[in-house]
Amino acid sequence: MDVRGEEPIDVTAKLRAKPDVNAAMCPSRGVLEHVTSRWGVLVLAVLLSGTHRFSELRRTVGGVSEKMLAQTLQNLERDGFVHRDAHPVIPPRVDYSLTPLGEEAARQVWALARWTEQHLADVLQARETFDAARA
Amino acid sequence: MDVRGEEPIDVTAKLRAKPDVNAAMCPSRGVLEHVTSRWGVLVLAVLLSGTHRFSELRRTVGGVSEKMLAQTLQNLERDGFVHRDAHPVIPPRVDYSLTPLGEEAARQVWALARWTEQHLADVLQARETFDAARA
Q1: Is the pLDDT of residue B8 over 60?
Q2: Segments in chain A below pLDDT 70
Q3: Which of B78, B119, B132 lies nearest to residue A101, judging by beta carbons?
Q4: For the domain that residue A85 is a member of, what is the CATH number?
Q5: Does the residue A79 lie in any domain?
Q6: Does residue A116 lie within any of the structural domains?
Q7: A119–B113: do the CB atoms touch at under 8 Å?
Q8: What is the DSSP letter of A98?
Q9: Mind listing the pLDDT tens digit for each residue in B30-41?
């Protein structure tokens, strides 16, 4: 107990078991889902190129709604992957950038996104073959 | 037109524009979503250790329903990442394994899953800090 009569924060207490994404209740699964979410992947990959404002992110990541982008950024900020910098100016300006931890995650999802783009023709050919065999 | 009076399959016709996951209508985004989907990540990572039967996958990937596992495997098979081998035996037996293309994708998501497990303590600490600052 600390002076406020509360249990002290003990992160390691949540980690008595070895983290395992295959375990349904392991919190690592939620982290992996934030990093690999539809918009999480794209936002991390874009931020690898440097600091962006909210409006820039929204323009770059095609099709994302304001609400989904805000939610995605907040999840990534809370997980320690994204740093949010609100400048006390008029009009308000908020910059988003990667933390060192976020940069490690972003490098990996960036590579996966580029790999997907490079192999799109193979995947589309596989789909044609699959659909033809079913028809 | 071919002899059946149909347009010949021309995968490249779908790729006139350079694939770009940031473009809302680019098909590469759907492929990336299959690879990074909640269950897609985990199924690919498990298959990296070798061929698995449906029931083995279901046991290994904690919390996945039969329906979601079947849908995930079918998406990955159609995209050319997973090979499905149905043996004509009684009782029926179906084996799933990675194709060479799937193995490339799986190595990347496996690395991301392991990275997430290894950095879980950092993320949980970041969440404590974030929540404390908001409280």
Answers
A1: no
A2: 1-16
A3: B119
A4: 1.10.10.10
A5: yes
A6: yes
A7: no
A8: E
A9: 999 999 999 999
Distances (CA, A) of B90 to B20, B86, B87: 46, 11, 9
Interchain pair A108, B111: CB under 8 A: yes
User: If we measure between CA atoms, which residue out of B49, B67, B29, B56 comes closest to residue B113?
Assistant: B49
| A:B CB pairs within 8 Å | 165
* Full strand arrangement of the beta sheet holding A52-53: A52-53, A93-98, A82-87
Structural domain count of chain A? 1
Mean pLDDT on B13-32:
85
Indicate whether B7 belongs to any domain.
Answer: no
pTM, to two decimals:
0.85
Half-sphere exposure of B102 (CA within 13 A, CB side): 29
By residue range, what is the domain housing residue A112?
Answer: 24-134
Kindly state whether residue B6 falls inside one of the protein's structural domains: no
Report chain B residues whose CB lies below 8 A from the CB of A100: none
Indicate which of A10, A28, A39 best probes the interface with B, i.e. most B CBs within 10 Å of its own CB: A28
